[in-house]
């Protein structure tokens, strides 16, 4: 896996909208926050476009993203928001320039499609906050900037009663469960072998979550992972009175596997969304009293 070069004051960050339409005020506030910290910021030509639930038509979104991927002066790309749309254009993208000069790609939710595409291309990326949360300038923003500038991620987390103790090492993969599920059978599917799988999601009925997890089980994803980091599953409804919680559903998937599993890591569809490097070598150590996650 190739690790992009780290940022420094004066590095150029480009903001694009490859998925859903964004509130311009979030972008403007994010630009101000990044410039305040010494970075140059440019916007994609179509960053404020809107076409129904998409940030403009497919050609415009793909064009902005491809230009950012190809631009030799751009050091990082922050996606303005998630939503929906990347799966419509991911197969149009050419990652050749990224392979020659990797740059950080930042985002979450629908951006899982890009994280998995970049992982398949052998390039690390950053599962992290986008414009709305950048504009809030909280701790996730501080950690994002620290990691983009070279600080290695190290997290010590509180325990959860469902945690599975043990140690594991492998490259981090995954992201939003709905997209990990949707990418199965494509060239951008999760590569589970000896990897640590990260999952999170938002606003799904519990039985939808179960169906997606069962699909991954049937595809053999849980048979070959080295460990799991389970993030936040936010606003999950109890429609149809499904009898199990999300974390109980995940626990069922791995009950016959001797692997460490961490539940409740603070990453996902919440404002307190800590960054993780997708594709990075990751150590997971879980004891009865502590969860330790290190990335290299």
Automatic annotation (TrEMBL):
GO terms for molecular function: carboxypeptidase activity; serine-type peptidase activity. The keyword Translocase does not apply. Pfam families: Peptidase_S66 (PF02016), Peptidase_S66C (PF17676). The active site is at 109 (nucleophile), 200 (charge relay system), 269 (charge relay system). Residues 169-284 form the LD-carboxypeptidase C-terminal domain. Residues 13-128 form the LD-carboxypeptidase N-terminal domain. GO terms for biological process: proteolysis. Keywords: Carboxypeptidase, Hydrolase, Protease, Serine protease. Belongs to the peptidase S66 family. This is LD-carboxypeptidase.
């Amino acid at each position: 896996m190739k690790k992009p070069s780290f940022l420094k004051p004066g590095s150029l960050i480009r903001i694009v909208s490859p998925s859903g339409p964004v509130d311009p005020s979030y972008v403007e506030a994010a630009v101000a926050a990044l410039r305040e910290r010494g970075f140059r910021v440019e916007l994609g030509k179509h960053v404020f476009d809107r076409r129904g639930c998409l940030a403009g038509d497919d050609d415009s979104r793909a064009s902005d993203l491809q230009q950012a991927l190809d631009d030799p002066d751009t050091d990082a790309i922050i996606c303005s928001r998630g939503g929906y749309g990347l799966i419509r254009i991911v197969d149009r993208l050419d990652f050749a320039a990224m392979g020659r000069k990797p740059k950080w790609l930042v985002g979450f939710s629908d951006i899982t499609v890009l994280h998995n595409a970049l992982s398949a291309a052998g390039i690390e990326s950053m599962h992290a906050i986008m414009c709305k949360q950048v504009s809030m300038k909280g701790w996730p923003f501080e950690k994002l900037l620290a990691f983009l500038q070279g600080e290695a991620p190290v997290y010590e987390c509180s325990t959860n009663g469902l945690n599975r103790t043990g140690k594991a090492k492998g490259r981090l993969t995954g992201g939003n469960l709905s997209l990990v599920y949707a990418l199965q059978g494509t060239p951008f599917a999760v590569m589970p072998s000896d990897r640590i799988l990260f999952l999170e999601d938002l606003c799904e009925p519990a039985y939808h979550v179960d169906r997606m997890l069962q699909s991954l089980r049937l595809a053999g994803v849980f048979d070959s992972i080295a460990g799991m980091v389970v993030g936040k599953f936010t606003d999950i409804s109890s429609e149809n009175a499904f009898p199990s919680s999300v974390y109980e559903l995940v626990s069922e998937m791995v009950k016959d596997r001797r692997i460490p599993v961490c539940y409740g890591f603070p990453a996902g569809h919440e404002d307190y969304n800590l960054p993780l490097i997708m594709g990075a070598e990751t150590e997971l150590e879980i004891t009865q009293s502590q969860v330790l996650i290190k990335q290299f």
